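call fold(seq) -> tokens
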Amino acid sequence: MSETLIKVENVSKKFCRSLKTSLWYGMKDLGSELIGRPHGGNGALRPGEFWAVDDVSFEVKRGECLGLIGRNGAGKSTLLRMLNGLIKPDRGRVTTRGRVGALIALGAGFNPLLTGKENVYVAGAVLGLKTKEIAGKYDEIVEFSELADFMDSPVQSYSSGMQVRLGFAVAAHTEPDILILDEVLAVGDMGFRTKCYNRVFELAKRSAVIFVSHQMSQVARLCPESLLLESGRLLRQDKTSLLVSDYEKQFPRAGSSWSIAEGVTLSSVTVNDIADQETIRINAGDPLVVKVTLTLPPGFRCLEASLSIHHPSLEIISHINSKQTGAALAVTGRECQIAIEVPSLTLGNGRKLLTLVLRDGDSSEILLWANAVWELQVESPYMVPAPVYHEARFSIGTSETLTVA
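ret:
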């Protein structure tokens, strides 16, 4: 049976909206602790206070990676700071076992006046490593961070991405029993993020990992299971694939827009033979067929069509383009119909948005741009990390007959 490394039992944390009042409450709480009374008084809210985290409980065992999902202000960062021992809970108990490696802010714990090399030793010491142990891991940390040319420069000259590189490299190479990551993979280039994913996968085999991100594809890639938080409370703990839909429902739909070039007349657009309906319900694995009927001005020889599927956050999940597939959409008359068929839609559960773009194949001028016009309600038992490649067929002809391109 796996060892439980993180145990959170009915934990709550309150803050005060007023700085002056907060300092006064802090002094009173400190005095109460000195005479043996509980931190935070009797647990009730005092004037101006609110619960940042309210009665949250969960466990993480060795070998597990747990995601935290929620809007800004849901309590994720407060919960991470309690796990890392930076702040105390007002109610409940947090129990951790083993060494904790945390990266919960860009360059957290770095002294900007010290060099990168000096900060590696300081950060390692904070994590409980001896100087000899840090020296033994130093070359490996520098190699992972790819900052060998900058280790003798002060950290204040580093970009945010460079600070994340160094911070992650230190936290991930101290062999922590518990690794806490908060939005750190949102910064950095694609190559470094890939290295981070691979490193987290390695650590997750022998550590307990807590991961926070607003990028659902990142959470789905790393965390089979997640917690959904809202206003400090735990709404649900479940498979990440099932929680993403609930999370996305908390956000209003992104604004949609149409753009049609002068001289182009749009007759109809259907998605899976459904017209004039902005919400399309579809099951994972079903085909997706978009048909556009329009009239073009004279002089067009060919068209380029593209279809994009993205999250409500506008993060691209899948993009297909007729030029990429080698399809030649030759225009044979002013009135034509373009069909885009995806035989099998491999998407994860939840809301997705659909954008359609038609261009002049010669000049790339945009003729039609339907931006986030359709909402796909996908029913799926799994979460597919973005991006996803879809096979597609493009056709052009008239409404009576289509010539496959």
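DSSP finds nine helices and 22 strands in the chain.
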